[in-house]
Amino acid sequence: MKRILFAVLLGALAGGSLAGGAVLPTVKTAQVGDLGRVVVSSSGRTLYHYTDEAKGKVDCTGACTKLWPPLLVKAGAKPAAGPGVAASKLGVLKRPDGSLQVTYGGLGLYLYAGDKKLGDAKGEALENSWYAVSPAAKIVKQATAAASGGGGLGSSGYTSTTPGYESGY
After folding, report:
1. Residues 139, 141, 145: CA angle, nearest 5 degrees
2. Contact in structure between 44 and 118 (CB atoms under 8 Å)
3. Is residue 124 part of a domain?
4. Residue 89 above 80 pLDDT?
5. Could you tell me the pTM of the whole model?
C-alpha cells in the first residue's frame, strides 16, 4: 500500500512540474533571416509588436487575434527569460478579455498565424504596423535606401528603432 501511495504521489509531483513548465512560455532570441537576432517564442517562432498600440493599451482584439495571437501566460505565471533575453524586460499586460499578455520592454508580443516554420518572419512590416522585436526591446524595421545611404547598415539592411515611443519606454 505504501509503495502504491508513494508511486501515485511521485507521479503527481512529476506531472505537476511538467504542467508547470508548460505554462511558462520561454522568450528567447534567435537569428531570423535578414532581420538578425530577434525575440522568439519557446518554439522558435518570431514574436512581433503592433506599433499602433500605445504603452499599456491593447488594440489587437477579436478577429485580429486570429491572425495575430498574443503570447499569453496563465494567471499567476510569469514569463521565463531564455538565452539572449533580459529577464528584467519581461512583463505582462492585462488584455481587455482578462488574459495576460507577455511584454518585452513594455511592447506587447504577438505571434503571426502566417509563420508556419522556424525562421519565418512573414509578418514583418505587414500593414506597416507589425514588426519583430530586438533583444534591446526595440522594433526591427528595414531601413530605406535613402535613409541608409544605399545600404550602409551592413549586410542585413535592417535597423532597430522604436518610433513614437519615449526614450524611457
Report:
1. 155
2. yes
3. yes
4. yes
5. 0.72
